[in-house]
Amino acid sequence: MRHRFRRRAASWRLLILAVSAAPAFAVPPALYRTPGYQSPVRIGAGQILLLAGSGLRRDDQVIYRALRTGDAGFEPPASVPATSTALLGVAAVVSVDHVPTALMVRMPTTLLERRPYRLWVRTAAGEWSAPLTVNDARPLWFSPAAVYATRSIGSLPRLLKIIGRNLDPAPGQELQVRLRGPDTHLLTAPRAAAASLAPYATSVPLPARLAPGSYSVELRRGEEDWVMIPGQRLEVRSDPVAVREFDPAASQFGGCKPDDGLDDTPCLQRALAAASSAGGTVVLDAGVWNLDPPSDAGPDGLLVPTGVNLKARAGAVAVILRSTRWSTTTRGATFTLQGRNVVSGITFSDARRHAAGDVAQPMLQIGVLRQEDGGRNADLVAPVPDVVIASNRFDHVHTAIDAGGLPVTNLVIADNVFGAFATALELTGNRYNVNRRFQIEDAVITRNTFQPGSYLDLAIGQGAMASELGAGRRVDFSDNVADGSATGALDEPGDARGWRAAYFWNLNDNQDEVLVAGNVATCTGDKDGDGEAIAFDNNGNAFALDALRRVRAADADSLTVDGPLAGRQFGRVVDPATYYLGDWIHVMQGRGLGQARRITGYDANAATGRITLRIEPRWDVVPSAGDSGISIGRQFWQLQVVGNRIDNRRPLCSQGNRTAPKGGLIGVIAQSTDTVVAGNEQHDSDGVLLQSMYSAAEAGCPDCARGVFFNSSVEIRDNLIDGAYRLADGCSSSGIFLSLAASPRSPAVTASFGLAILHNTIANATARDGGAITVQPTWYLGPAPHRWPLVDALLIQDNAITGLDASAARACDGKSVRPRPAIALPADPVVWHVAFAGNRCPDARVAASGFGVKAGVACRR
Questions:
Q1: What is the dihedral of CA 20, 23, 25, 30, to 10 degrees?
Q2: Residues 277-284: what's their mean pLDDT?
Q3: Strand 549-555 relative to strand 629-633: parallel, antiparallel, unpaired?
Q4: What is the 3-state secondary structure (H, E, C) of 218-262?
Q5: What percent of the chain stands above pLDDT 90?
Q6: Is 3 helix (H, G, I), strand (E, B) or coil?
Q7: CB 449 within 8 A of CB 414
């Protein structure tokens, strides 16, 4: 058999089995089976599958059956199949070390490609679990959320993109989308569209005409049943009507003229005001329009009213030049968009050359600046809707587009060229406005080109970045290019080239259903700092509990823990009664381990001091009072990072990071569940990083603070990692790296559950003091003797690792040398229930290392 499982020393293995042993159960086993929530997604012939749940036994059997069209299929077979075929049979149970929490099974080699299957667990007593489904089409959301009856939105093509899992049809089959509303339309995805981002997304051309109204959206692969996209309907709007144009050069607005070097701000203000009262578009003729700050300038600059557009006349090169009279010490936007605005065809430029200490000066701000509680606009809550920023150029600006802090809905940023000194897109919100949270909902950011500016601050390791987003729900961030080799936005020829980082996300609020696909980033790290190409950061997370809390009671829709919830975040007082709505419960210990559910409501019991939290969807396995432990925080959910290309190779890039040998990382450095990092291509990079950590404030530990990086059901698969940022430098880290940490007195929590590292190709890339695939501590490792499952249920399968026959790497201390192993696990037993299968490392001097690892089993040379 190709599969092999890591086992630890005999005494510890016996201990695990003793803990895992369970008495006879009166109920059938339960599996994690809710699609999209920590349940299995995809399995191929001969592959290993983790079945997590509760009540599983060592003598259980796993039965599979191919799903037929129109077959509800929830009832199990009448009996256990005597033989196994492609359609029906018994999967081989290959590990029972983790019962009653999980089984690992090997699917038969006859499994049909892309065919949905149902799986049941049957006990020796004849009890059957409810089934789970794998390989079924799972459309999760679509983009854009609203379209016009016949027109396109901005510069977007008239397409509907469907995002989810298992969206690739079998060979010879079609992928179809059905719209049902005022009319019914059956649409077929072109084969190229179905294949380009398969199995994670596909696009279908929309009909030339759609009747306005609300439509459900369904998807079907081949002859399978239709699957409706949950919780979202397509809004079809009537085409926009022709609106009046307002020319700021007209006499009634002051008769300003471009190219005369005079201040055009008053004329532009008058034109915007007139357009506001009548509805319309302010149109700029060719030439340079000079803008001084308005006499009444506040942080919002010139207000672009709701329903007013700002455009260049067709075919004209219109330049808005912001003068040097604008402040660099107080925040101030040039224009603030208040909703239902289109900005297109304009070149925005700054007369000033900026310095590292300048305060952010966005050219465009989405929504007025909302300050902290009690401050300016603090009580505004209505979102800023329907902003389109397309086909503009931002030339030597400080910040191109910023957000004032109000929620934003239906945002399109497409086909722009950005050359920003600091950050082109700074859509992060204000985390200190704790009782008015920020969100970006239904956004398309696509086909933009980013060029790095000259910002470089070596003292703090910061420099120019392409984008940063602080919250998101249904965000399509695709097909953008961060060209770090470009020099057009640099202030001087000798300024440092490249990026501090390219694309960045944080957790000023939750990030749900985010697609990051088909983007390009080059020369990230050529300036300084960590040099991330694509990074998802825990920065901005707000944790409700000061430490792990034991569950006091639970049912299918709720659980109860001891209070209180944290009353302060980011040094500000929050309202605990509402602040944590929409955040996530993570089960980090005991029954239900690895599950994550969203909080929909909660109540405090003044008499007992306990908090009852309501969740959606229901638990697959209800956490157990006294046994299960939870944390509460924000996270990335259904994050898909697919098909991106990262390139730091010379001579395109310098690999000259002034801070450390770092660049090109794809990093999930945050809480995440149901995340996939797949099909990406990285050249001379830091590879892929996943960070898993638990920390609580502890006496005697000044570095310890409340914070969790919990990960569950994360897949890292089908990526190409070709070369480290600096292979010969022992301080350069690459490959696939799982970073572990736990504060010194932490309880025996699990920070990573169900991670799968599958089908990756890694060449000439190893971690600092590790291997091509590495699981290593990077901080404290909890209390001695470090024997607990900080990482649990890890699958490392079918990875191809080469380039390890190079000379040994010099360690980062500059003295010792080490061989380059293929797979490196910690020397301490904090990684439990690891499955190795089919990994190949033909030229490795050391195939694998770590506690209890058998090198020839983990990776074959």
A1: 0
A2: 91
A3: antiparallel
A4: EEEECCCCCEECCCCCEEEECCCCCCEEECCCCHHHCCCCCCCCC
A5: 84
A6: strand
A7: no
Confidence of residue 595 (pLDDT cuts 50, 70, 90): very high
Tokens encoding 264 = 């055009």
**Mean pLDDT for the chain?**
92
Query: What does the alpha-carbon distance between residue 646 and residue 666 come to, in Å, rounded to a whole number?
Result: 9
**Range name among 56-60, 61-65, 435-439, 529-533 with the lowest pLDDT average:** 435-439
Task: Kindly compute the dihedral angle of the four CA atoms of residues 64, 65, 71, 74, in this order, to the nearest 10 degrees.
Answer: -30
Structure tokens given for 661: 């040998």
Task: Could you list the beta-strand ranges (E) of 782-830.
Answer: 791-797, 800-802, 809-810, 817-818, 821-824
- Beta bridge partners of residue 744, listed in sequence order: none
Identify the DSSP state of 523. S
CB atoms within 10 A of CB 14: 10
In the chain, the largest separation of any two C-alpha atoms, in whole Å, equals 91
- Name the pLDDT band for 19 (thresholds 50, 70, 90): very low
- List, for residues 170-214, the tens digit of each pLDDT value: 888 899 999 999 999 999 999 877 677 889 999 999 999 999 999
Look up the pTM and report it: 0.96
d(CA 300, CA 391) in angstroms, rounded, equals: 23
Question: Three-state DSSP class for 46?
Answer: coil
- Comparing C-alpha atoms, which of 497, 408, 387 is closest to residue 453? 497
Which parts of 85-233 are beta strand (E)?
Answer: 88-95, 102-106, 117-122, 132-134, 138-143, 146-148, 159-165, 175-180, 184-188, 201-205, 213-221, 227-228
At residue 3, the pLDDT reads 38
For 387, what's the count of Cα atoms within 13 Å in the CB-facing half-sphere? 27
| Residue 10 in this model has a pLDDT that exceeds 50 | no
CA distance 824 to 626: 35
> For 603-611, which contacts have Cβ atoms below 8 Å and span 24 or more sequence positions?
604/563, 604/564, 604/576, 604/577, 609/562, 609/563, 609/564, 610/552, 610/560, 610/561, 610/562, 610/563, 611/560, 611/561, 611/562, 611/563, 611/564, 611/565
The span from the CA of 218 to the CA of 696, in Å, is: 45
Q: Per-residue DSSP letters for 609-654?
A: TEEEEEEES--SS---TTT-EEEEE--EEEEEEES-EEE--TTTS-
Query: CA torsion sign, 358 to 361 to 362 to 366?
Result: positive
Q: What is the pLDDT of residue 197?
A: 84
How distant is the alpha carbon of residue 641 from its chain centre?
Answer: 7
What is the band of 331 on the pLDDT scale with cuts at 50, 70, 90?
confident
Q: How far apart are CA 164 and CA 115, in angstroms?
A: 16
| H-only helix segments in 333-488 | none
Which amino acid, residue 578?
Answer: T
Q: Which of 110, 74, 76, 72 is nearest to 91 (CA)?
A: 110
pLDDT greater than 90 at residue 102: yes
Per-residue confidence (pLDDT) for residue 24, from 0 to 100: 44
Alpha helices in 241-344 (DSSP H): 265-278
